[in-house]
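Q: What structure does this chain adopt?
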Amino acid sequence: MVLRSTLSVQGHTSLSFRTCAGGELLYQRGDSGDTLRFEVLNNGTLLMEWLAGGAAGVVLHPARNLADNQWHVLDFRQSRPLVVTLAVDATTAVVSNPSVTDMISDKT
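A:
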């Protein structure tokens, strides 16, 4: 499926999925070249990769095996400026916060 516009990381994005094997859940590339990708790895771990404004990151979400043929809910949320969280079935991981963003900004 091709979306007419890219998903915004401002606010809240959510999707539900069910799988029994690893594979890509979502990939998007903006006109600026920024990318966002969610993938369930073969071991059932959720991988999130992004490239935005020259900064790149990878997050392995600590949720249990997601390739279990059960429904799961993924929530990607910016709760306030520079604070981004990724939750799967109510298990939340911090993707970005002001101290992480400062470290990334210092390297670019």
